[in-house]
Each structure stands twice: as C-alpha cells, then as structure tokens.
Amino acid sequence: MTVNHKELLSALVDGELTGEELDLALNILQTDEQARQQWQRYQLASDVLHGHNLVSHSADLTASISSAVAGEPLLTTPVKAKVLHFSQPFWKQTMSLAVAASIGALAVVGVMSQSQHDLIATEQLATLEVEQSAVAQTTHASKRWTVEEEDVEQRLNTYLVDHNEYAGASGVFSYARVVSYEVGQ
Amino acid sequence: MSVDLELVQRVQAGDKKAFDVLIMKYQQRIVHVITGFVHDPVEALDVAQEAFIKAYRAIPNFRGDSAFYTWLYRIAINTSKNHLTARSRRPPLHDVDAMDATNFYDAPELKEFETPESKLVSDELQQVIYNAIEGLPEDTATAIKLRELEGLSYEEIAEVMGCPIGTVRSRIFRAREAIDKQIHETMSEGEIR
Asked: What ipTM describes this predicted complex?
C-alpha cells in the first residue's frame, strides 16, 4: 500500500473524499486486507479521541455481518411515484379538458333531450291515432266536424295530428296552442 | 454529498461491499452504545450484529433526512430494547439523543453505558494517543487537534492555519501515522489488552 493510498484512507475517516478519490479508497478497502486493518486503526483512534469507549478494540463485526448480509436478497430502493411532466402549463391543459368535458356533457344532454322529445311525439302520435280512430268512430255517429265531405274531414284530422306532432317535436309543446275540440262542437 | 450518504446510495444500488465500510466505520460506537443497554460485552456484539443486519434490510427506506449515524443509532437502541424485552429485562429509563451520541463528550448520559473494562481500555488507549500527539511537530499536532477535538472540516482548518487544504490533509495523515505507530507498538508490547 502506497503512502498516497494511506493518505486517502485517512481522508476517508474524516469523510473528506468525493468522486474518483472516494471510488479509489473504497476499491482499496475492498481489495486490500492490510488497508482495511489500517483504516480500522485510524477509525479506532478517531473514535477514542471523540470519547467513544471501546468494548473490545480487537472486535471486528465486519466479517460476520458481511457473511450474514451476503445471504440477504439484493436490495432495491422503493420506486418513487413518477412526476408527470406536462409539455404545456398545467392550467392550460386543465382548461382544455374542462372545455372538452363541457362540450361532451352538452352533447349527451342534447341527445337525451332530443330522444325525450321524440318519445313525446311518438307517444302523442300513438295517442292521437287512438283518438283519431275514436274520433272517426264518433264522427260518424255525432258529426263532430261541420263539414259533410269525407275527404275534407280527413284533411282536418290530418291537420290536427300534424299540428300536435309539430308542437311536441319543436320542444315548445307547453307554449303551443293545442288544437282541440269539444264533443258537441 | 457526505461520504456516508454516498455509501448508502451505493448499498441501495446493490453494492454490498459499501455496507462493509459503514460497518467498519461505526461498529465501535454502536457496540459501545448497545453495551450500555445489555451490560455484557459479548451479548452486545450479538445485538450489534442484529442491529446492523436490520439496518441493511431497512436501508432502501433511508432517504437521508437525518445523518446515517443518527438513523443507525436509533436502530441500535430499538434493537437493544427489543432484546432486553424478549429476555424479560427492563431497558434503561433514559435514552441518549441520537444527535448527541455522535460525540461522547456532548452526551454525559453515555457515561452510564461505560463498563469498568471498556473505560480502562479506552483510558489507556487515549493516553497513548495523547502522548503520540504531544510528540508531533506543532503544525501537525494543531491540524489533528482541530480535526478530532474541535471537529473542524479540512476547509475550516485550512482557513484557521492559513494553508492549502491539501497541506491540511497531509498533516492529518502524518499525525494519524504517528498515532497508529504508537498504538501498534503499545499493543505489541501487551500494554493494552
């Protein structure tokens, strides 16, 4: 072991090595038994000067612990949670997402609303068809329309159905004037 | 980045040899602290080994929020307490703050952990080291005292002594060599058991 190597070991005791010098010192300790003993004596003197009493200056736990550790599985440091890096500022991305979500929500609500209107219209149509047949049945009996011609009466019925269907499909049913009639009119 | 943190990151990356360096660096301090709990030096070595193995298993979760020694110290204390509880023995009432435990002189509570044997060995060794420092050239003695007794960094010592950092490093190394030579001779003569 060279003098330079011993000086490195001395500096290692003081924690004053970095980079390549630290690598070299650790390599010396791992490969040179004489260097290990030398370094432990340096460390021992330092501990005594710092007031750490010795239980046994000849006790060296390194070998026994090292062999126990050799049987241990290889250590792996816990994986740190990955930090997401945004190419744009975070608030910009958030705003874009919010706008996209709003548009999506509007589209869904619109489709649902449209379906409901369609449903209303279909239901009304079904109801009117039933009513129409009833009207047709009763018209013959009570002469509900004041017209005599059958084709005119048919056109009036069709107009009534179309009007109500339009009012329902346009979404303004509640504001539409319902074309109706009273029995006996 | 501190050397300890660098070593920890190497261990976390799968370098088991880097953990050896951390063991070599801190084993004396950890055994000393554990002896204060279990009072038996041989038992303390077993508990220290268990504490280091626990530290190795837990090291993937070490984030460097505190110094490595502070973290290791807490593991050693908990391992000692669990060891005593498992043997139906009562742990000490007071813990030493992990930050204070870095330096014995800042933590008088650590004196409770001393055993007569450990105190005798440490006192003898300390005397040998002080004698070695007294025999050093003045600039070398000043550098090692500023480092070990005052806890200054190389940069701070360079500023105090008005010399380059490389010179500080060299002076501290020469001081350590002289101390090591003295310790080696004393041990060889059997003066320190």
From this structure: 0.81
Residues of A in contact with B153 (CB under 8 A): 14, 16
Same domain for A7 and A49 = yes
Smallest Cβ distance to A10: which of B57, B114, B172?
A: B172
- Contact list in A for residue B115 (CB cut-off 8 A) is 55
Q: Which residue numbers in chain A have pLDDT < 50?
A: 79, 81-82, 125, 135-136, 138-142, 171-176, 185
Residue A82 lies in a domain: no
Cα-based distances in Å from A179 to A59, A141, B96: 109, 21, 96
Please provide the average confidence, as pLDDT, over all residues in chain B.
Answer: 85
Show the domain range for A114.
102-139
Domain termination residue (choose one: B58, B79, B114): B114
pTM score, two decimals? 0.62
Residues from chain B that touch A75, judged by Cβ atoms under 8 A, are 11-12, 14, 56, 59-60
Total CB pairs under 8 A between chain A and B: 172
Q: In this structure, what token pair is assigned to residue A148?
A: 């005599």
Asked if residue B193 belongs to a domain, the reply is no
Which residue does chain A place closest to B63, by CA atoms? A77
Which residue segment(s) compose the domain that B157 sits in? 118-188
Chosen from A10, A54, A74, A77 to mutate, greatest number of chain B CBs within 10 A = A54
Nearest by CB to B28, from A42, A52, A68: name it. Answer: A52
CATH number at residue B104: 1.10.1740.10
Give every CB contact of residue B38 below 8 A, 6+ residues apart in sequence: B44, B47, B80, B83, B84
DSSP-H helix ranges across B13-115: 16-38, 41-58, 68-86
Q: For the segment B62-107, what is each residue's pLDDT rounded down to a tens digit? A: 988 899 999 999 999 999 999 998 887 766 655 655 555 555 444 5
User: Residue A153: which residues within 8 A CB-CB, separation 6 or more?
Assistant: A139, A145, A147
